[in-house]
UniProtKB/TrEMBL annotation:
Composition bias type Basic and acidic residues, residue spans: 9-30
Keyword presence, Transmembrane helix: yes
Pfam families: HGSNAT_cat
KW Transport (keyword) present: no
InterPro entries: HGSNAT_cat
Region (Disordered): 1-37
Heparan-alpha-glucosaminide N-acetyltransferase catalytic domain span: 61-185
PANTHER family: LD22376P
Upper taxonomic lineage: Eukaryota, Viridiplantae, Streptophyta, Embryophyta, Tracheophyta
Keywords noted in UniProt: Membrane, Transmembrane, Transmembrane helix
Protein name: Heparan-alpha-glucosaminide N-acetyltransferase catalytic domain-containing protein
Membrane spanning stretches: 67-90, 102-120, 132-151, 209-227, 316-337, 349-370, 376-398, 418-438
Length: 453
């Protein structure tokens, strides 16, 4: 959920090609003829220094990026609330792509774009590194609190975490990982050469692209190269936790990308521990595991043994490829920094977006399926391409054509994304409403208005 918050001492680094806008922290006055013509909303009138500071703080934000972030938050709320009713927009049970499946990569893409603007020039890399680490820890702590199980959910007024079963990974944890790696790449892995073209920009950030290649290689090598042995898990029988039933899962394969025997699940079970994984796996909605597929439902009589096994959709191996999405977004942020003409930005955004989208679809046809749970390379390509196209469209609509007023709600949501995410994913608001009841906990406000029956 990172936003564009310039680091002290940063300013444009494009020489004569681009005009510069001084950072808010510098306190310098910018005259009319010195203002950046980023878009219409970036032109600064001549006021007092204090007025200029406030005005620059508002206008340094890229409006289209806030709108895109707000749109992604709105999509998240939509699919969370309506996904159970409309399976077409809910997460795909395994292979495939739905509206819900683009939310996570869109967030990661936005984080990357924001990092390209935040760290475009630094006065002290050590200070920037410290701030990036602190922001990462903030996201990790909030993520553990929200998704580790502290608030037990709707219709349950209890709280607290059993540390033997806490879920270590989650949405904010994955965003934190992508943020940290992207920030380190932007702080430490960029050259100092002048950018005059797309090719020179690639040379400036060649080490970042080398990091992308390294992450993709590591992911593909582990996913398709690791041998997955047979394994087992246990779940309590009825209400007795002392007599768990053991379910054996037969594997003994290499390079398998099905729900039961993929390397991603094996890595998470080995490193994190199966008791610390998500207990409501997405593949429980597949046809072999649910008579109501693509919705959750009772197990079919011949259901395979793995249907109830915990599986984390934000696991360790899939997070490696998620980092790549963040670094792709970082490249789009570089385009904003180094190219000031709208047509140049649009061209440099649309070409890679189209290439990513086509490459991902071709890989899916060749057998490397688009899969959100595993965050496959084809899934990364399709969703990164889609994110680039949507971002370009919003940029043209909002920052070029000035179609801003109808987007004010999305812009506000984008500027307060972390707060909205916290309220939406933690059930904090329903828990507060349930906390006020008449005589019995069930007689609360939610029950009165017909929610949570």
């Amino acid at each position: 959920m990172a936003v564009y918050t310039p680091i002290k001492g940063q300013e444009e680094d494009n020489g004569d090609r681009n005009k510069s806008l001084k950072s808010n922290d510098e306190g310098g006055h910018v005259d009319d003829d010195e203002a950046v013509d980023e878009n219409k909303s970036f032109i600064l009138p001549t006021h007092s220094r204090q007025q200029d500071d406030v005005q620059r703080q508002k206008q340094q934000r890229l409006v289209s990026l806030d709108v895109f972030r707000g749109l992604t938050v709105a999509l998240m709320i939509l699919v969370d609330d309506a996904g159970g009713v409309l399976p077409a927009i809910n997460h795909s049970p395994w292979n495939g792509l739905t509206l819900a499946d683009v939310v996570m990569p869109f967030f990661l893409f936005i984080v990357g774009v924001s990092l390209g603007l935040t760290y475009k020039k630094l006065s002290c890399k050590a200070v920037a590194t410290r701030k990036a680490i602190l922001r990462t820890l903030k996201l990790l702590i909030i993520g553990l609190f929200l998704q580790g199980g502290f608030l037990h959910g709707l219709n349950d007024l209890t709280y607290g975490v059993d540390m033997t079963q806490i879920r270590w990974m989650g949405i904010l944890q994955r965003i934190a990982i992508g943020y940290l790696v992207g920030a380190m790449c932007e702080i430490w892995l960029k050259g100092g050469n002048h950018v005059t073209s797309g090719l020179s920009m690639l040379r400036k950030y060649q080490f970042q692209w080398a990091a992308v290649l390294m992450f993709v290689t590591i992911y593909l090598s582990l996913l398709y190269g690791l041998h997955v042995p047979d394994w087992e898990y246990q779940i309590p029988v009825a209400a007795s936790a002392s007599t768990p039933k053991i379910f054996p899962v037969k594997c003994g394969v290499r390079g398998h990308t099905g729900p039961a025997c993929n390397a991603g699940g094996m890595i998470d079970r080995t490193i994190l521990g199966i008791q610390h994984l998500y207990r409501k796996p997405i593949y429980a909605r597949t046809k072999p595991c649910s008579i109501n597929s693509p919705g959750y439902g009772p197990l079919p009589p011949d259901a395979p043994s793995w249907c109830q096994a915990p599986f984390d959709p934000e696991g360790l191996l899939s997070s490696v490829m998620a980092i790549v999405t963040c670094l792709v977004g970082l490249h789009y942020g570089h385009i904003i920094v180094h190219f000031k003409e709208h047509k140049d930005r649009t061209l440099h955004w649309m070409v890679p977006s189209t290439c990513f989208l086509v490459l991902g679809l071709v890989l899916d046809l060749l057998g490397m399926h688009v899969n959100k749970a595993l965050y496959t390379f084809s899934y990364m390509c399709v969703t990164a391409g889609a994110a680039g196209i949507v971002f370009t469209g919003i940029y043209l609509l909002v920052d070029v054509c000035g179609f801003r007023w109808p987007m004010l709600v999305l812009e506000w949501m984008g500027m307060h994304a972390l707060l909205i995410f916290t309220l939406a994913t933690s059930n904090i608001l329903p828990v507060v409403l349930q906390g006020f009841y008449w005589k019995q906990p069930g007689n609360n406000i939610l029950r009165f208005i017909g929610i949570g029956r």
